[in-house]
Design brief:
elongated, 6 helices, 81% helix, 182 residues
Length: 182
């Protein structure tokens, strides 16, 4: 089961990288313009900038989460301390991701792309799942939600990876000669 979860985690990383590379290759703007510029009222530019915000922050938070998660697991805190810190941190981690995506959109004066909305909703569900797991493991000191947490988190990561892969697919279909699918 752990090998499946690890491969699922790498699939999420690969989907974010593929979306990021596709966005940089097929977007009308350069990396500098995507970072610091504001999109025009053109729908495609709004979508590109929105997805750039999402993919950039998503990749950054993914790397940060892996580093902090590994640091917590090897820390000399004891089992109860590790549980408290681990579940609390990852709840806060998801909340900060959602808040920063919204804040960066407001700063750029950018509309939310549908994919960005869906990923934020899924991150909200992950946040609720992390908080429930925190209550289950730390406050109640039980393990009632182990199956829900393990399979729920894996399923949510699989859905997130699928949603991230929708954008490169959409861009690829846009470049078909007859534009039948775009």
């Amino acid at each position: 089961m752990m090998s499946f979860l690890l491969s699922l985690d790498w699939m999420v990383v690969a989907s974010k990288l593929l979306a990021f590379c596709t966005l940089l290759l097929l977007s009308k703007h350069s990396l500098k313009a995507m970072l610091f510029g504001k999109p025009s009222l053109c729908t495609q530019e709004q979508i590109d900038h929105s997805l750039f915000v999402l993919v950039s922050l998503g990749a950054l938070f993914h790397m940060l989460g892996r580093f902090v998660g590994d640091t917590i697991l090897v820390a000399d805190l004891g089992l109860v301390g590790k549980r408290q810190l681990y579940y609390f941190y990852f709840s806060l981690h998801e909340l900060l991701l959602i808040v920063l995506v919204i804040k960066w959109h407001n700063i750029k004066r950018c509309e939310f792309a549908n994919i960005t909305k869906y990923i934020c909703y899924l991150s909200g569900v992950v946040l609720c799942l992390q908080l429930l797991r925190y209550v289950d493991r730390v406050i109640i000191e039980a393990n009632y939600l182990e199956g829900v947490y393990r399979y729920g988190l894996a399923s949510l990561n699989l859905v997130k990876a699928s949603v991230f892969l929708c954008y490169p697919l959409h861009l690829a279909l846009r470049y078909l000669p007859n534009r039948k699918f775009a």
